[in-house]
Specification:
Length: 220
């Protein structure tokens, strides 16, 4: 679905990268198309991956990688998103990578999000639940606390519980339309056992939206 649009967004993002940059590499199918387009440009860059999956893709394409703690700062991070609401607020974590993605995002001078048109929504939460990374210890207690905000569903794939790169689990909290995403983010993160939410508020400088008519550039 929307493969050509994702490809266009990935290529447009690759054009933003210049030799000498340290570049944050996002996770997901759209970010993977960006990583492929970036590798084709053969620039002298250092990548910082947001997941084990992205690290192995980048390595296989010959992109030099560093750990975040080995670099001073990241110049530019390109990542995908699951849903984009007003003021470029984001829901991320559909690929279970949002904690690392958020750490890389905050370490980056500029953050560009690439999506196809299907990800845009009038009200954040109308399309996606909020992914919340939770430590395994007594996660049913954390589940109970999360019920205050909606219906939490433990994420499973092919019959087994999904684990993040850090070994934690994910609860997808069906919270409906979110009126105040910053407040919801704060309230969820205040629960013991919650590692991070997939709400990214005020963290996208630019969103590149690929549609049939071309790539639109949105700024906050
Ligand atoms: C990963 O955890 C997510 O934040 C991704 O950025 C998101 O799921 C986008 O993936 P697609 O580009 O495959 O839709």
């Amino acid at each position: 679905v929307n493969e050509a649009q994702k490809q266009a967004a990935g290529e447009a993002a690759a054009q933003l990268v210049e030799s000498g940059m340290t570049v944050g590499l996002g996770t997901g199918s759209t970010a993977a198309l960006f990583v492929r387009a970036l590798a084709k440009r053969r620039l002298d860059i250092t990548g910082v991956a947001t997941s084990v999956a992205t690290a192995s893709l980048a390595r296989s394409l010959g992109i030099r990688l560093a750990e975040l703690d080995e670099v001073d700062a990241i110049d530019l991070t390109i990542d995908g998103a699951d849903e984009i609401g007003p003021q470029l607020s984001l829901i991320k974590g559909g690929g279970a990578a949002h904690t690392r993605e958020k750490i890389v995002n905050y370490a980056s001078r500029r953050n560009v999000i690439i999506v196809d048109g299907s990800k845009m929504s009038k009200s954040l939460g109308e399309k996606w639940p909020v992914p919340v990374e939770v430590v395994v210890f007594a996660h049913l207690q954390t589940h109970k606390r999360l019920e205050e905000f909606g219906r939490p569903v433990l994420r499973q794939k092919a019959g087994s519980v999904v684990r993040t790169d850090a070994g934690n689990v994910i609860y997808d909290v069906h919270a409906g339309e979110i009126r105040d995403p910053a407040a919801l983010d704060r309230a969820m993160r205040a629960i013991p056992g919650v590692v991070e939410t997939g709400l990214f508020i005020g963290r996208a400088d630019v969103v590149l939206v690929a549609e049939a008519s071309g790539v639109r550039r949105l700024t906050r």
